[in-house]
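# step 3/5: fold
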Amino acid sequence: MHRLTYLDVGYGDILSTLPDSIGECASLKELWAGNNRIHTLPSTLCSCKNLEVLQVYGNDLKEIPSGIGDLKALRVLNIGRNQITHIPDSLGECQNLTELQAYENDLRTVPASVANLPNIKVGNCYGNPKLGLPPREKVREGVVATLRYYSSVNV
């Protein structure tokens, strides 16, 4: 498993957990586990220091590991269509993150640290009823302004 760079277990609608041993995949760059029934991500996932793409949309997740900030190589995080209520502030430590897909969850706010990520290009938080819709002028100002608006919402 040390040489595994790409793992796709998505669209099975049968997987309810990822094994703790996922953290042993030192070379893993992409993990696609969308459209399953995963209810929790093992904290050991945060040991995958080379992980660049994490696609866990369409599951039953309520949270993401607080150690997510340890994934310094992370560029794309898709946690859409889950029941996540908050994003750990540590995600702001993922300085290479360019895309955050957090649509259709139960988010109440977005950490300011995420809005301050230097390379963020996509920040999709639509469909989070408690966040509501950002004012049109914030959307026109771009991703950073929109994420900053969401970070000011605290329900």
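# step 4/5: annotate
The mean pLDDT is 95.
# step 5/5: archive (pending)
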